Amino acid sequence: MHASPLFARIKLAALLAVLPLAVTAHGEDIKRVSSATSQAPISTTVVVPSGSRLVFLSGNLADLANPAAAKGSIEAYGNTTTQVISILKKCEKLLAAEGLTLADVVKVNVFMAGDPELGGKMDFAGLNAAYSQFFGSSTQPNKPVRTALQVAALPMPGGLVEIEMTAAKAPAPAK
How many domains is the chain partitioned into structurally? Predict the structure, then answer.
């Protein structure tokens, strides 16, 4: 037995009337879980509630730190710590243009080239030295989840670090 076209339209109208409530009726916050035994500036899990606004930033590279250095050299862009600080400051500006801050960041991917000064290994300590100034600090305690890995090369000569991130803003609680 098939439902009448009128019954189907009524059912669809009722569903469409309730659907916006299902998306916006909650006021859940973004949930961040960190390991109780780790002081690392990262969360182990971040849960973003339905209806949140997501903003994705493409991979960003460092700005020129030393114009007097040879073009395309590590000296021109600085060591890992200098490059991470440059990139995170750039990300702060990109997020601000969207009405967000680093406190809204939920996921960070860090791609690192090997540092010749470290025998071709990535400078994980340098990454964390800079990163912890922006995440998990007393001024900005939120910690996103993070992946950091070494890649064969980055698209910018002299680049040691590229960072992409995702930010989320949970919907305001329903009144």
Answer: 1
Q: What is the CATH number of the domain that holds 95?
A: 3.30.1330.40
CA–CA separation, 71 and 82 (whole Å): 17
Helix axes 80-96, 124-131, angle to 10 degrees: 40
pTM comes to: 0.80
Residues found in the chain: 175
| Sheet of 53-60, strands arranged across | 53-60, 161-169, 105-113, 145-151
Q: What is the pLDDT of residues 141-166, one digit of tens each?
A: 999 999 999 999 999 999 999 999 99
Residue 1 within a domain: no
Amino acid at 86: S
* Helix (H), strand (E) counts: the chain: 4, 6
Residue 152 resides in a domain: yes
Q: What would the pLDDT profile of 109-145 be if each residue is shown by its tens digit?
A: 999 999 999 999 999 999 999 999 999 999 999 999 9
